[in-house]
Design brief:
Layout lengths: L1 H16 L17 E6 L5 E6 L4 E6 L5 E7 L2 E8 L5 E8 L4 E3 L15 E2 L16 E6 H6 L6 H5 L5 E3 L8 E3 L8 E4 L2 E2 L1 E2 L5 E2 L7 E9 L12 E6 L7 E9 L10 E2 L5 E3 L5 E16 L3 E16 L7 E21 L2 E9 L2 E9 L10 E9 L2 E10 L4 E13 L2 E5 L4 E2 L14 E4 L22 E3 L4 E15 L2 E20 L4 E7 L11 E31 L2 E15 L5 E18 L6 E12 L4 H6 L3 E9 L2 E2 L6 E2 L2 E2 L4 E7 L16 E15 L2 E14 L2 E3 L2 H7 L3 E2 L5 E3 L2 E2 L11 E3 L5 E5 L8 E5 L1 H4 L5 E13 L3 E14 L31 E2 L6 E10 L4 E10 L30 E2 L2 E2 L11 E10 L7 E8 L7 E4 L18 E4 L4 E9 L1
Parallel strand pairs: 1-7, 6-8, 12-17, 31-35
Antiparallel strand pairs: 1-4, 2-3, 2-5, 5-6, 9-16, 10-11, 12-13, 14-15, 16-17, 18-21, 18-65, 19-20, 21-22, 22-23, 23-24, 23-25, 24-27, 25-26, 26-29, 27-28, 28-33, 29-30, 32-34, 33-34, 34-36, 35-36, 36-37, 36-40, 37-38, 38-39, 39-45, 40-43, 40-44, 41-42, 45-46, 46-54, 47-51, 48-49, 49-50, 52-53, ...
Length: about 1000
Amino acid sequence: MASKYLAKGLKRSALTVALGLSFVGGVQAQTNTAGVVSGRAVAGDTITVENPATGFSRTITVGADGNYRLSQVPIGQYTVTRKGVDGSTSSRTTNVSVGTSSNVTFVSGTGDAQTLDTVTVVGTGAINPIDVSSVESTTILTAEQIAKIPVARDATSVALLAPGTVRGDAAFGNLASFGGASVAENQYYVNGFNITNTFQNLNFAQIPYEAIAEQQIKTGGYGAEFGRSLGGVVNMITKRGTNEFHAGGNIFWEPEDLREEVKNTYLTTGVLRQDNSKDSQWQAVASVWASGALIKDKLFAYGLISYGRKDNEIYGNVLSSTNSSDQTETPNWLLKMDWNITDNHLLELTAFSDKTETDSDVYLNPVGELNRTTFLGTNFTEQGGENYVLKYTGYLTDNFTLSALAGHSKFSRGQRLRTAGGLDVSYGGDINNPATGCPIITDLRPGYRRAIDGTRASTCNITGAQIVRQDAEDTRDQYRIDAEWQLGDHLLRFGYDVDDFESVDGGSFEGGRVWSYRTDDPDDIPNNGDETDFVREQIVNQGATVKVEQRAYYIQDSWNVTDNFVAYIGGRWDSFKNINGQGQAYVDIENQFGPRLGFSWDVNGDSTFKVFGNAGRYALPLTATVAVRGASASLFTREEFDYTGFDPVTGEPTGLTSWGNFRFVNGEFGTAKNPLTIASKNLDPMYQDEYILGFQKALNDNFSLGIRGIYRELKAAIDDNCDYTAILRAGGFAQDDDGHWLRNGQEAVLPNAGFPYCRMFNPGEDAVFLTDFFNTGVLEETTVPGELLSPKAKRKYAALEFFFDGNWDKFFLQGSYTYAKSRGNTEGGVKSDIGQSDTNVTQDFDYLELTVDSYGYLPNDRRHSLKLFGNYEISDEWSVGANLLVQSGRPMNCLGVLDTDPVEPGVQAHPYGSSFFRCDGIPTPRGTGGRLSWSSNVDLNVAYRPSYVEGLQFKVDIFNLMNSQKVTSVNEQVEDGTSGTRLETAFLPASFQAPRSVRFMVQYDF
């Protein structure tokens, strides 16, 4: 009987580590930087885990119940040795991955020790077992696995291989949406350090990807250790040095000649709008690395230097007045050092730079053509910076482990211009000293006959937009401490973290202002003599140093109720404080509670069939960007003029006569705002509830599959509302026939420093605002009923995910199919409908009218997603890989105007123009504008490793083999914002699938 159980036990152990190249089931949050070795042995035995490559070694004594557990084990391959009290020994070899528990058992069915000699139970390329203590939904991919798949080498592209992820709108860059959440609701980590850029939550530090050893993608159900995310968590672990010296280098090259052109776009009339025939792109990345032991078994180093360059020729649409030639350089580096101070105390340093510098040479383009004429100047932008992380791990007892982390990072976002004549143009952030250079000119006049004819345009403006202040940057200081304590059947984890984020930001129109040429036509009858030309001057300046202070503590317990049933309970308490440019808090939320519950049932008791479920609440803080303009000093002015001519070079009007109507807009007077008036006093954070139920089953030694159902519901959102009439009505004011707001005969003074037009609130909830109605410095507390402001924010995501994992000697294949629905009246942090990246201050709830018919299928609703990827080793020298994605299209909207009655000369009737869910005056609820077509993408690669030169490898990746270029987003604003007439740009494609491209690689390791 014992021998029969032994054979079964060995088979099971081998099976659990051979179930696939990557794992897509659930994994308990052991830690976000290391893994666990656990199992059973005879009480009193000693268990030693040792990594020969690093000298790392830990020894513990098996408890009275026969269970053992070694936590915080750095990823890698380990020998696990049991030594009995009688001196007998046996050993196993296993791999440890981040966040997983590798199970190694040394007892038979009777509880007797197994006395075999060394037995290797790790499978070829297999590292991830079914962890029966799991409640999370996680995918793990190693560097070796990623190298075999034709996939772009960046965190987002790899994350998109996981079930439940879809690519976000092109307007926000290369970002992923997890489980129906917006792209602004994810968190990103490297070696335990949060690298999410909290300014807008639309960026994160770009680790030199050659340095990544493992990437873990958490798509749901993650433990209380993780927070500040409603979407997903991307957790990366870098490579590290070992006792054996390694060095190498590689080059990736994507040539211009093997990249297909992007499709052209056409107006509804058939007229060409965007001609991409002259656009081109090539890129290359070269990296060199070395690693080894500075002191054997004690001190290790891994270093990498990487340089990338991408050249783009960008012409834009045929109505653009400029085109550009862009050169982007990424001179990056990474250093990882590990010091095994003793067997029980480890210290590690991670340092890296992800700086990106782009020089964009801008040229004049004749409107209506595709040509490159006069050189205007260069637009210099930079992103990224340096990051330093120090982490300590202490194995203080057999049952208690402590880790502490401290990290500091800087992320630059500065911009400056240099004219063709060599003059530097920039904005310093002083709101009373706007940006220098040529002003922006827009000509919004209809096609009437003119006494002063000719097109008003600038021949010297470089960007035609706001420029960011030159010293814009983000700084993060993060500290955290985490502990793990095994108390019998209870595994307790608890910790505390501090995450302080400071942003320097501001913007001003190039040249300091926009001159907008307009026409006032009282009767809307062209050329009958009553038209009046005029020009509007608009100035918008903002600049501030703002902060977000975040604190959190958590505790969680994984309780082995029985030998094959684990119950999980946890709680997380988050505190968020947002601070404006004057150092004052305008939002302060303390101890937002996020409960977490879950279970995992090892049905057969042999780690081959697991049923799991979890429920949790997750909160998201307010981003830093809100404070720069909304809560700090800012300037916004307008004034109209008559004019007699214009400068033929700058386009500026001449012979100006003011209408005498200079005014401040939106209460932006250039002075500090009262922080008490910016947000509702009863503001809750944005939070979401999530429920997951699923199972995973190993069908045999090589194949496993699983199913899970997911339901997510947004319970509260944070956004801004700009309808000041609601608070006036709630405050007892009424409007007279002349439009004045009066209470007891006294007129409200609006706006003023204590009466902002736009305020932060929870949509649909009663809001308690403080307001200075009469500009006297006295703040009154007013409760505004939720129904006067907006409906409740809604977002519901329901999905069924099928996933499988197969691994054989020469072949692995992984895949998933997801059926999902995402419905609501808000996407979340951003607004893909119009490409709005103003995180937490979208126009979704600015006015009650904007919310009418806004409930429906959301932009990230991709009903069907099929993903397959794998690799086949043809021989020792040749292999081929493939990556397939088949996906249904996103829903479309038809956005039009609310009415066409003008409220002031030359502007649309409603300040939001073509932003309402109606077309041709008919209600068109969200998502009823049809759907984009299905898309498919096939990527292939082939690799050659010549036997005559060990360590040499050549590889070719072909992305989008069939050059399928289906439309992935369109212009959903289909009506003119003033007249309401149908635009020729209605449903004009805004983005396509990336065209076919080819990437070559040569690599040498020694």
